[in-house]
Amino acid sequence: MILFTPNLILKLDYLMVNLLKSLFYWLIKGCLKIPNDFCPSCGSHSLRKNGTIHNGKPKNECKKCGRQFVINNTKKTVTQAQTDLIDKLLLERISLRGIARVVGVSWRWLQNYVNHKLAQVSRKIKVSDKPRGRLTIECDELWSFVNSKGNEYWVWLAIDRKTREIERGSAPNLVRHAQVSFVGCYIGDRSRKSAQKLWESLPPVYRQYAVAYTDFWESYKTVIPDSRHRPVPKSSGQTNHIERI
Ligand SMILES: [Zn+2]
Prior knowledge:
alpha/beta, 3 domains, five-stranded mixed sheet, three-stranded antiparallel sheet, 38% helix, binds zinc ion
């Protein structure tokens, strides 16, 4: 037997009110044909379908302002607290894959974030004081992966052979290294595009004058000028310094 206590009656009352509200809204919406979806920029309900995004969710385009968006987008934004934590962790002896896992950001996002950070880092090497024509760099790409082997990435590095000793023995931390001894760094895949990004990360004087020793990976050939590119086997010893990192 159900006892209709005042408390239960109140709850039922609340439920009924909500049910009636929903019903009323549904009827009004049906009569006025109000569409559910609206543009997050201008609030217009005048939308058209515009294909799908990478995960198959339908994409919409606002007819009024042209904004393209996904309805009920579940994409999470990285908070300021998370980026603060990442900044701290980047200064410790923690791998990037560890940081991505702990902070709960995607590897792709962290990769872009670190590249962006590295681009902003002012390099302490006084590149303008170098005697031109005597610059020698060693480039290498190091393979690593996050979580599973399918999730691999490559860290592209360039060091100046003469200034390599500045930070010898310090924490193997990408950002710290970039500040003191690396002259170029990029994280991505192993494609030509990544080689290009490594090249672009070098200070201009290196791009203009440095002789670059690399392995035989073909991507280097497409970005380093022939006259200054020295592809060498590991056994030559010419890329010893960077390979010891
Ligand atoms: Zn709009």
